[in-house]
Amino acid sequence: MNKKITLYVLSVVAVLMLLSLGLLLGRLSAIRDFAPEPPTEEALSDFEVLQLAIIVTESNLDPYAKGRNDDLGLMQITPVYVEEANRILGEERYSHADALDPDLSLGMFRVVQDFHNPTHDISKAIRLHNGAPWYAAKVRKNMEKVRLYERLRKTIHQ
Questions:
Q1: pLDDT (tens digit, 9 = 90+) per residue, 95-107?
Q2: What is the pTM of this model?
Q3: Where are the domains of the chain?
Q4: CATH of region 46-157
């Protein structure tokens, strides 16, 4: 008789343990379901790749770069470029010194591009920034480097 009671008690304990385990797993599942998803990154647009390629071409990522023709910063912004951005905006928002600030430099670039190249055509964007015959090939080569960097960055980040 003791054997039957022992088996019965063990069976009840086993059922209770299984029920507890099921509840625990259910709670873990609920916690997992509410855990934030890792952020999904969108691929860079061609225009974003272009901006980075121009930065590499113009300054090799040096926000304090100074060129031979009074061009400054990441995008090597000239005083004429600043004047054009301000003319488009209808106000004196930018100074030439702002070209040394990466955000403001990119802001001027976008103002000029959005006005003169609203569709963000890559060839036109390159010509607008620098019309030298050799410049487009150099920027396009750097666009490929930026794309490779971005692919490797995502691979490493996984």
A1: 999 999 999 999 9
A2: 0.73
A3: 1-35, 46-157
A4: 1.10.530.10
